[in-house]
Amino acid sequence: MTIDIITLHPELLVGPFDHSILKRAQNMGLFDYQLIQLRDYGLGVHKQVDDYQYGGGSGMVMMCEPLHQCISDLKSIKNYDEIIFLTPDGQQLTQNISNQLSLKGNILLVCGHYKGIDQRIRDLHITKEISIGDYVLSGGELAAAVLVDSIVRLIPGVLSDETSALSDSFQDDLLAPPVYTRPVDFNGQKVPDVLLSGHDAKIAEWRHQQSLERTKNLRPDLYKKWDKDFKT
Ligand code: 6GU
Predict the structure, then answer these.
(1) Which of 56, 77, 112, 122 has the greatest number of CB atoms lying within 10 Å of its CB?
(2) What pLDDT, in 10s, does the model give residues 22-57?
């Protein structure tokens, strides 16, 4: 899978992409990315990319021409399955969206700044608009990093133990159960006996019950949904 990202601040994305699982996915040849500096498509000697909004109001708007030229150049080289604009007024990101996007071949992300991008670019090029939550970030870059991380770890083969992505919180609309490692006794706090029992079925049942308890207490909204959709 490839993910290309149009941004005015590529430096914000280099760090997250060159470590940990994202780095591993690249080394394994399962993921590749490209950062495209929108400023290179700016207008005039000042490489202008934004302007005042029609109708008045504070904040600049990212102009049509640089974005259109940039996206068109990229489209002429590659077919994109999705062109996603990161924006606080987009559809809120869920595990389900990440699961679906992890099956795509090529994705293009557009990071906005200022008051956003000219609506005509959204109408012309954008196939999906995603927000990562109900709060405002200074730009789409950090949201793009979150989105890419959530997608790439799901690409088959990226995680060493493929089942571990399947047991993540949210993968079945429940929070993950608590986990323990050595020592068995930490200053009097003990690992639950069942985890030391070697009884796989009992352990699975305990984990499921813990997931239910945690979800019920911490995320009643998710629990209600689970109760309705999956009750077993
Ligand atoms: Cl995708 N962009 C910005 N600027 N702010 C956000 C966001 C995205 N998602 C939540 N807040």
Answers:
(1) 112
(2) 999 999 999 999 999 999 999 999 999 999 999 999
Which residues of the chain carry a pLDDT beneath 50?
A: none
User: Does residue 174 share a domain with residue 215?
Assistant: yes
Both 111 and 209 in one domain: the answer is no
Residue 54 and residue 117 in one domain:
yes
Residues in contact with 14: Cβ distance below 8 Å, sequence separation at least 6, in sequence order: 35
When divided into structural domains, the chain yields a total of 2
- What is the residue-wise DSSP string for 58-69? SSEEE-HHHHHH
- Determine which residue's CA is closest to atom 3 belonging to ligand 1: 137
Ligand 1 atom closest to residue 132's alpha carbon, by position in its atom list:
9
Give residue 219 CA to ligand 1 midpoint distance, Å. Answer: 23
Report the atom number in ligand 1 closest to the C-alpha of 86.
1
Alpha-carbon radius of gyration of the chain: 22
24, 55 in Cβ contact below 8 A?
no
CATH of the domain at 68: 3.40.1280.10
Could you identify the atom of ligand 1 that is nearest to the CA of residue 135?
11
Kindly state whether residue 162 falls inside one of the protein's structural domains: no
Range of the domain at 189: 169-231
Exposure string for 175-187, b = 16+ CB within 10 A, e = fewer? bbbeeeeeeeeee
